[in-house]
Amino acid sequence: MTDQTDIQTLMHDIGARARAAAAELAFATPEAKRQALEAAADAVWAARAEIVDANAKDLAFGRDKGLSDAMMDRLMLDEARIKGIVDGLRAVAAQDDPVGQVMAEWDRPNGLTIRRVRTPLGVIGVIYESRPNVTADAGALCLKSGNAVILRGGSESFHSSGAIHACLVAGLRATSLPEDAIQLVPTRDRAAVRALLGMTEHVDVIVPRGGKGLVGLVQAEARVPVFAHLEGIVHIYIDKAADPVTSLAVVKNAKTRRTGICGAAECLLIHRDAVDTVGQGVIRALLDLGVEVRADETLQAIPGTVAATADDWGREYLDMIIAARVVDDVDGAIAHIRSHGSNHTDCVLTEDTAVRDRFFERLDSAILMHNASTQFADGGEFGMGAEIGIATGKLHARGPVGAEQLTSFKYLVAGDGAVRS
């Protein structure tokens, strides 16, 4: 047993075992991976009482740390959320296996037949905060895509993540896949994170899921490539041609369904001509729901709002707070989002297709929506079963990162004695 007080030795051992498991997992059959995920889902459901008990320890730890209500909500597991974890595992299990898929194939005049096929990335390190369901999502997606994974959950979710991880290992064991394919760092020590970020000989990519502090640390210190989004600064633009009923429903859901997720709306932009027809009603509804609306000078005329400051533009609250301001038109909204957004998710509410098309064409967020709640910014809702995170960069993976996005490709070249002249 590796001495857990020696973090470097511990992490090197985990990395070496992950690399060995990845080599074996790369050619595991689709059926074996599917069965392992089904067995893991069964194990999670059978252990739901134990998982809730473990989560109670984490909730107590979170309360002692003074976590916000939104963060406590992200941490909490009940039977309904555990059912969601089970459903997510089964959904990933049922997906087509991406490994070996032929992306393109062509013949060359030189006698070569060339295929570009999907192949696993190798070993993925996932660093996450609070949300213990990420343990299952990340483990499942990495397994489905033929990758070994090293999971480093947050200190807040330590016990919950451990209980879920045990179920994933049970699934691997049931199908004789390498148990080291899904490993959980067994310590809260932050030195383990820094060690993981430098493990270039063992880890192919790092995926951070958490707040600005965590993601900023990873991006600053990682020697391994990173899939990341820094923040979910999500905007909704209400155009003058927006439908009032649609706008009210979408904004209420986007802000209040779950405030602590990265797809929650954080800033409302309202066309000057829509303030009286749509905007006031939307803001009053948010106020009635207990949302603090930090408004610009024009919107401060609505009773109950508070004055916004410069710091409120481009801020991720993850709480029952939203910024709101008036813009002259769709171009004003686009300019504001370009200045203050995070390229995560942005939405336009309008019945004018020209406005929609302009919004879609001139913004480059990973996800752009029209007349739909930004809470749909989620791999499960995109049909991916689950997601390992939402990437806002432009290299390799972008938007919800599912099993397919966790593959690279290789070229398979065949000839019949072809030689080059």
Instruction: Compute the separation of the termini in Å.
Output: 58 Å
- Portion in strands: 15-25%
In the CATH hierarchy, what is the class of the largest domain? Alpha Beta
Number of DSSP E strands: 16
Instruction: Tell the overall outline.
Output: globular
How do the strands of the widest beta sheet line up side by side?
A: 10-9-11-8-7-12-13
Helix content: 40-55%
Structural class label: alpha/beta
> How is the main sheet built?
7 strands, parallel
How many domain regions?
2
Q: Determine Rg (CA atoms, Å).
A: 23 Å
Stated plainly, the CATH topology of the largest domain is called Aldehyde Dehydrogenase, Chain A, domain 1
Average the pLDDT over all residues and give the rounded result: 93
Q: What would you say this structure looks like, in words?
A:
There is one protein chain. This protein has 421 residues and is an alpha/beta fold. The chain folds into two domains: 7-227 and 401-414, Aldehyde Dehydrogenase, Chain A, domain 1 (3-Layer(aba) Sandwich); 234-376, Aldehyde Dehydrogenase, Chain A, domain 2. It is 41% helix and 19% strand. The strands form four sheets. The chain has a seven-stranded parallel sheet, sandwiched between helices. Strands 5-4-3-6 form a four-stranded parallel sheet, sandwiched between helices. Helix 13 (353-362) links the parallel strand 12 and strand 13. The radius of gyration is 23 Å and the shape is globular.
